[in-house]
From TrEMBL:
One Pfam family here: DUF3871
Protein known as: DUF3871 family protein
Length: 324
C-alpha cells in the first residue's frame, strides 16, 4: 500500500459531481450516520434481550481499523445506503391510527445497510480517471439468527478496494473482500477487518485494473459476449458446468449494451471497439442496480469476469465460451 501515489484530496473528485452519484441504487435510500445513531432502534437476540452489533458500531469499528492500519487521523464522511425498513411504534401508541402517530411514538431500523468510506489522499489514475482507496461493507440483519443469544456470530460483508471518482463505481478484488465475515463482538469484527486490510495488496489490484487498458474487444466480439451473457442466464444447470460464472442479471446486461453506446465516460470507440477498462466499468456501473445483499458479489464477479475475458484475449485459444 505504501506505493500508492499521494495526491491532494481536493483533486480526487470530478468537479464535485462524484459525491452526488450513488454507489448503489436499487431500492435504497441515502442516510446520515447521525440519523441512524440518534433515531434508529437496534434489534436484539430473543433469548437474552442483548443487542446485536448496530449499523453504527459496524461503520465505526471498521473505520477505526482503517485509521490504525493506514495511520490516518480522519476519514471522509461515510456514504450510506439503507433498505428494507422495519417500522414499529411504542407501546403507548399501540391503539392509534397510523396517521395519528407522533414522531416520538414511531420506531424504525433498516434491515440492510451498505456503506463506503474513502481513505484521504490514497489515489491512483487510470485513463485520466482518479481512483480513491475505499473501505466499506454490508450489514444485513436478515442473515442473522436472532432466536438465540448474544454469543451467536453475526454476518457481515467487508471490502477494501477502489472507487472510480467519475462515476462512484466500486472496484474490488478477491483478496480485498470478505463476503461471509462472522463476528461475535466489536473486538472480533475489528480483528477480522484488520486481517483483511493488512493482507490486501492494493498495488497489485491497481496494476491488474490498469492492464485492462491494454486489451480491446472488437465490436463483433462485444456483441458476441453480450449475446452469450444473455444466453448464460437461461442455460440448463448441467450446461453451465465449466462455463465461467456471470452473476449479472439480464436487465443489467441490457444496461451494459445501452451504455456501450451512450455512457459519457466508458462508451465505444469510433470504430466500435472498447477496451477492457471501459468494459469493466460498464459492468460495475450496471450492477449498482443490485439489492444490497447481492451488490458486493456482483461487483466482485465483474472484476473476475473481466480478468477471464482478458485471459481469453491473451490466449486466443477459442476455449472461452462467451467469445467462441
Amino acid at each position: 500500500m505504501e506505493n500508492l501515489t499521494l495526491l491532494p484530496q481536493n483533486l480526487s473528485s470530478n468537479g464535485g459531481a462524484a459525491s452526488q452519484n450513488k454507489f448503489i441504487e436499487a431500492n435504497t435510500e441515502a442516510i446520515e450516520l447521525k440519523e441512524i445513531r440518534d433515531k434508529h432502534i437496534i434489534p436484539v437476540f430473543l433469548k437474552d434481550n442483548e443487542p446485536a452489533i448496530s449499523h453504527v458500531e459496524f461503520v465505526e469499528a471498521v473505520s477505526e481499523t482503517a485509521r490504525d492500519v493506514f495511520g490516518i487521523s480522519e476519514l471522509s464522511k461515510p456514504m450510506i445506503r439503507v433498505s428494507h425498513p422495519i417500522k414499529g411504534r411504542t407501546y403507548e401508541a399501540r391503539h392509534k391510527k397510523a396517521n395519528e402517530l407522533l414522531p416520538n411514538e414511531k420506531t424504525i431500523y433498516y434491515e440492510r445497510m451498505a456503506y463506503m468510506v474513502s481513505l484521504p489522499n490514497m489515489i491512483k489514475n487510470i485513463n485520466g480517471q482518479l481512483l480513491e482507496l475505499t473501505i466499506g461493507g454490508v450489514k444485513a440483519y436478515n442473515l442473522d439468527n436472532f432466536n438465540s443469544t448474544k454469543g451467536s456470530a453475526e454476518h457481515f460483508k467487508l471490502f477494501i478496494g477502489f472507487k472510480n471518482t467519475v462515476c462512484t463505481n466500486l472496484c474490488i478484488s478477491t483478496d480485498g473482500t470478505k463476503l461471509d465475515l462472522k463476528a461475535k463482538s466489536i473486538e472480533d469484527l475489528y480483528a477480522k477487518a484488520f486481517e483483511l486490510f493488512t493482507s490486501y495488496d492494493g498495488v497489485e489490484h491497481f496494476n491488474e485494473m490498469e492492464a485492462f487498458t491494454d486489451y480491446e474487444l472488437t465490436e463483433s466480439q462485444f456483441a458476441q459476449l453480450i449475446g452469450r451473457s444473455r444466453l448464460y442466464q437461461h442455460l440448463p444447470k448441467e450446461e453451465k458446468l465449466g462455463i465461467p460464472e456471470l452473476l449479472i442479471s439480464d436487465t443489467q446486461i441490457s444496461k451494459v449494451a445501452d451504455c456501450y453506446y451512450s455512457d459519457p465516460n466508458f462508451s465505444r470507440n469510433d470504430n466500435g471497439s472498447i477496451d477492457l477498462w471501459r468494459f469493466y466499468n460498464l459492468l460495475t456501473g450496471a450492477v449498482k442496480s443490485s439489492y444490497i445483499d447481492r451488490f458486493l458479489e456482483r461487483e466482485l464477479n465483474s472484476f473476475d469476469f473481466t480478468k477471464q475475458v482478458r485471459n481469453a484475449l491473451d490466449s486466443n485459444s477459442g476455449d472461452f465460451w462467451y467469445l467462441n
